[in-house]
Design a protein that fits this description.
Blueprint lengths: L1 H64 L4 H11 L6 H26 L2 H31 L3 H31 L1
Helix pairs in contact: 2-3, 3-5, 4-5
Length: 180
């Protein structure tokens, strides 16, 4: 009986030692993993902070580098110094300014391109002008049927935007030809 008890005790000791050793190893691994997780979390927090700082710097740089055309600045100044009921006057003036810019760009292009190339631009400009006149009729029909300062301002703003896009296109054409 003593031998049986001794064998059971030895087996019990071996099993307990195995489980105790496993528990200690798992506990040590858990502590190690916790420390590594803490280190990784600190690194993530540091990287997130750096990322936020970079995003702020990029936003700041984008705002500083944002270019506004002088005509757009003139429009903003007009709106800021005008009563809301008179915003349409600013939009009308803005459309006239874009007409002047279009003519300026056409003159600049004419001075740098050959006659055949300018004829293509001139024909396109004539076609564009017909399209704009048609658009203006539709827009003015909208204004006359929906009176009010807001609708009138919107209508003239639409016209100014159409002309702005044309002026910017002509400016790009000019820039491309001056780079060659």
């Amino acid at each position: 009986m003593k031998k049986t008890f001794l064998i059971i005790f030895i087996l019990f000791s071996i099993i307990c030692s195995y489980y105790f050793g496993y528990y200690v190893a798992a506990y040590n691994l858990n502590i190690k993993m916790t420390k590594e997780n803490n280190i990784l979390n600190e690194k993530i927090i540091t990287l997130n902070d750096k990322n936020l700082k970079l995003k702020e710097i990029i936003k700041k740089n984008n705002k500083e580098e944002e270019y506004k055309h002088p005509i757009d600045i003139k429009l903003e100044n007009c709106i800021n110094s005008t009563h809301p009921y008179l915003y349409s006057n600013c939009a009308v003036e803005n459309a006239k300014d874009w007409d002047i810019e279009i003519n300026k760009q056409l003159k600049q292009i004419k001075n740098i391109v050959n006659k055949d190339d300018y004829n293509i631009i001139d024909i396109a400009q004539t076609d564009w002008k017909k399209s704009v006149d048609s658009d203006e009729k539709v827009i003015h029909k909208f204004v006359s049927s929906h009176q009010g300062a807001i609708n009138e301002t919107l209508a003239y703003s639409y016209i100014a935007d159409i002309k702005k896009q044309r002026a910017l296109l002509l400016n790009n054409i000019y820039n491309i030809h001056t780079e060659e």
